[in-house]
Design brief:
It is built from 3 helices and 7 strands, in the order βαβββαβαββ. By secondary structure, the protein is an alpha+beta fold. It has a single domain, classed as Aminopeptidase (3-Layer(aba) Sandwich), CATH 3.40.630.30. The longest helix is centred in the first third of the chain and has 18 residues.
Length: 153
């Protein structure tokens, strides 16, 4: 069983998982994406940093939400250790949190070359949207979004 809970993004276990994500992204994309994350963005109102733990209490995944505007949240630093199953659980919990915070949609960005991530999000109802914010004009980026509904499980 996986349990998700809010933690500070500077917690030791959170930092360890983010470092694993950075290494994985650097290997896939040639860039860790670390410059695109400011921990303070997920400490404020209507934002959260989640840590997923397995039945033994080991941290196996993380993910965060930050506001883009009043209606849209952005997923940041989403990572699940391979084989843990934490990705599905984390994404579902981030979506539920977004609804509780009053968002109507979630957006995110990943690199086109990260086909595994793109396929994961598409399997869970995310669709390609026009690149937004700092991703506008970036040919290596793909942005995805999902409209939230109250029936999320």
């Amino acid at each position: 069983m996986l349990v998700c809970a809010a933690v500070d993004p500077d917690a030791i276990e959170a930092r360890g998982l983010v470092a694993q994500l950075d290494a994985a992204l650097a290997a896939i994309c040639g860039d860790s994406g670390a410059k695109s994350f400011d921990a303070n963005d997920v400490r404020g109102p209507r934002s959260v940093f989640l840590l997923a733990r397995d039945a033994a209490g080991h941290a196996v995944g993380c993910g965060a939400l930050r506001p883009i505007d009043d209606d849209i949240a952005e997923v940041k630093r989403m990572y699940a250790r391979p084989g843990s199953g934490a990705g599905v659980r984390l994404l579902g919990e981030l979506e539920r949190q977004a609804l509780r915070f009053g968002y109507r949609a979630i957006w995110l960005e990943t690199r086109k070359v990260n086909g595994r991530a793109v396929a994961f999000y598409e399997r869970h109802g995310y669709r390609v949207i026009p690149n937004y914010g700092k991703y506008v004009g970036r040919e290596d980026a793909v942005c995805l979004g999902k409209i939230l509904t109250a029936g999320l499980t």
